[in-house]
Design a protein that fits this description.
The complex is a heterodimer of chains A (about 260) and B (about 325).
Chain A: E1 2-6, E2 9-11, E3 30-32, H1 34-47, E4 53-59, H2 65-74, E5 78-82, H3 92-106, E6 110-113, H4 125-133, E7 137-147, E8 150-157, E9 160-167, E10 170-174, H5 186-192, E11 197-200, E12 219-225, E13 234-237, H6 242-252
Helix pairs in contact in A: 2-5, 3-4
Chain B: E1 2-7, E2 9-10, E3 13-14, H1 16-28, E4 30-37, H2 44-49, E5 54-59, H3 68-76, E6 84-88, H4 91-104, E7 108-112, E8 114-115, E9 121-125, E10 130-136, E11 141-145, E12 161-164, E13 176-183, E14 196-200, H5 210-220, E15 223-226, H6 228-232, E16 253-257, H7 263-269, E17 274-279, E18 292-295, H8 298-313
Parallel strand pairs in B: 1-4, 1-6, 4-5, 5-12, 6-11, 7-11, 14-15, 14-16, 16-17, 17-18
Antiparallel strand pairs in B: 2-3, 8-9, 9-10
Helix pairs in contact in B: 3-4, 5-8
The chains are: A alpha/beta (about 260), B alpha/beta (about 325).
């Protein structure tokens, strides 16, 4: 079985938005989006000692190679990085188009995603990519098994669990409850340097330059502002009558 | 302007968040709704009360399982007639919205907390440290709103016009099926609909101490919530989980007992009207976004508080 895992290189630390471009500043240090480590782990677990291949795929700046190398150090077999100035500033429509183009070249039996991007808080990309690939999609997978040409997923929802079966090829987004990602071993880190690593441009994915990046995006950032304040905050410390103080506060707010 | 609102439903009821988004849409222009499922025709009248003047109903047994792709097929045939399509965020709605964005090459903005009459979306970013104005460059504009962004208040609308929506499923939309469902119903009131939530975290010390939260919730007429840490530890059922991997709530009052306030929990409850936190750690992050913070031992403060609330109510 061939499994492709989509990973994102995200800025480390609290992050900042560049006031000029109004984009997330991606010039600093970055790391593998930690939710994607769950997807890499699940792919490695599914492959086990058996036949098959785990290929990690990313769209991002050149530095995203660091995150792909981390996935290779965890045990993935091969990496593909789509890195092209023409793709900078891509929104969901443009990103899903380029990523689907890169994935179509791979034609994997199973495409895995992590449950969200920790930088943009996005939790939607898989459904757009699946639609472009015309494959079934299941998100919030808390358990995943493959038998024959069927993937069986326990999907966590607001109401409990659904057990969903989909025919391969399929796209699945795993929840971070599905596993504990391994840490790369020293041997893994050394070995990662020798693994195949392919870098693609947008046109290599079969997508025209004006369909990627800001030109191909259908949303835009217009302005940045300060968040609404929560108002004044009170804090009580070392008060034996704290319970009474809470009741008085609630009464003032007409909540009791 | 015309706006289509995707109404999600569960167990014969339209989800409260969807009704809030519908009421918002009705305040901006002509609000139409779409309901997809099996045996859902009766829900159209309910949508009228929240401002829908027209409801597209796709009622078919094949649409009963809550899977996203058949819903994309239904919405794709309708969306082109509208200036915007609105969704209330959920596991299902997010997948429907994103699938529709790809199908129509339509822009999707997510995690919005508001939208103006000229279609500028308001989106908090970077742990809510900045509020971003976002827009769309083409129609239909797809918008996914953070849960609890709008009150689900009836608008006083009447009976809506209903029409049957076409149901023609793509091959890949029929490639997934639900083979089993394990629903975990909470024993008390549902936390999504509760006006008051008392939530417990690790600081309660032991699973049996959740009775502190339950008794206070009963006194306040509210529901009980829990952090992911205590749900993972088996102290409380998943149906009560609030946060990134659980439910997003926005009650009038949120009382946090022994909850540190990690970002994963914060995203699930930060739009609560009033937040009261009790924690013995004076440096707990929850105090940074509480309206009233009490540094103290929950085991001492909460029983007294419950007693005082009961006295006041009797």
């Amino acid at each position: 079985m061939k499994i492709a895992v989509c990973v994102k290189h995200v800025p480390e630390g609290p992050g900042r938005i560049d006031p000029g471009s109004k984009r997330l500043d991606r010039t600093g240090e970055g790391a593998l989006n930690h939710f994607d480590a769950n997807a890499v782990e699940e792919a490695l677990r599914l492959k086990g000692d058996g036949e098959g291949e785990v290929v990690v795929v990313s769209l991002g700046p050149e530095k995203a190679a660091d995150s792909l190398r981390k996935a290779l150090a965890m045990g993935a077999d091969r990496a593909v990085l789509v890195s092209d100035e023409a793709a900078a500033g891509s929104d969901l429509v443009a990103t899903s188009k380029v990523l689907a183009g890169a994935l179509a070249r791979e034609n994997a039996d199973l495409v895995l995603f992590g449950q969200q991007a920790s930088d943009a808080d996005g939790a939607v990309l898989w459904a757009a990519v699946a639609e472009r690939l015309r494959r079934p999609v299941v998100s919030q997978a808390a358990e995943l098994t493959v038998s024959g040409d069927t993937v069986r997923v326990k999907r966590q929802t607001e109401y409990g669990y659904d057990v969903i079966e989909a025919s391969l090829p399929a796209v699945v987004a795993v929840s971070d409850a599905i596993n504990e990602p391994r840490y790369p071993s020293l041997k893994g880190i050394m070995g990662a340097k020798k693994k195949p690593f392919e870098t693609l441009t947008v046109s290599d994915t079969g997508v025209a330059a004006d369909e990627a990046g800001e030109a191909g995006s259908k949303t835009e950032v217009r302005a940045l502002g300060a968040p609404p304040s929560r108002g004044e905050s009170k804090k009580i410390e070392g008060d034996a009558n704290a319970a009474q103080a809470i009741v008085d506060f609630l009464a003032e707010k007409r909540l009791v | 302007m015309s706006i289509l609102v995707f109404l999600e439903h569960h167990d014969g009821e339209i989800q409260k968040g969807s009704l809030g988004v519908l009421a918002k849409a009705a305040s901006l222009g002509d609000a139409h709704a779409v309901i997809v499922g099996g045996g859902v025709g009766a829900l159209a009248a309910e949508a009228g009360k929240y401002g829908a003047v027209k409801v597209h109903v796709a009622d078919d047994a094949s649409l009963d399982p809550p899977l996203p792709q058949p819903r994309v097929d239904v919405l794709a045939k309708l969306a082109g007639d509208y200036d915007a399509v609105f969704f209330a965020n959920s596991v299902l709605a997010a997948d429907v919205a994103a699938g529709l964005a790809a199908r129509l090459d339509a822009g999707l903005n997510w995690d919005l907390v508001d939208v103006t009459g000229d279609f500028t979306g308001k989106r908090p970013a970077l742990q809510d440290s900045v509020l971003v104005d976002v827009g769309w460059k083409s129609t239909p504009r797809l918008a996914l709103f953070r849960a609890g962004s709008f009150d689900a208040a009836p608008t006083g609308g009447g009976e809506p016009e209903t029409t049957q929506a076409a149901v023609e499923l793509e091959e890949h939309s029929r490639a997934a099926k639900i083979v089993d469902q394990q629903l975990e119903e909470a024993s008390g009131p549902s936390i999504e609909d509760a006006d008051v939530i008392v939530a417990g975290g690790r600081g309660l010390g032991a699973p049996e101490n959740f009775t502190l939260a339950e008794e206070l919730a009963r006194a306040l007429g509210g529901a009980v919530g829990a952090t992911r840490a205590v749900v993972d530890a088996g102290w409380y059922p998943y149906s009560a989980q609030i946060g990134q991997t659980g439910k997003t709530v926005s009650p009038k009052l949120y009382v946090a007992l022994g909850i540190s306030g990690a970002i994963q929990h914060k995203v699930g409850m930060q739009s609560s009207n009033v937040i009261v936190a009790i924690n013995k750690d004076p440096n707990a992050p929850i105090f940074e976004f509480s309206d009233l913070g009490v540094v103290g031992d929950v085991h001492e403060v909460v029983p007294k508080l419950t007693e005082l609330v009961k006295q006041r109510k009797s």
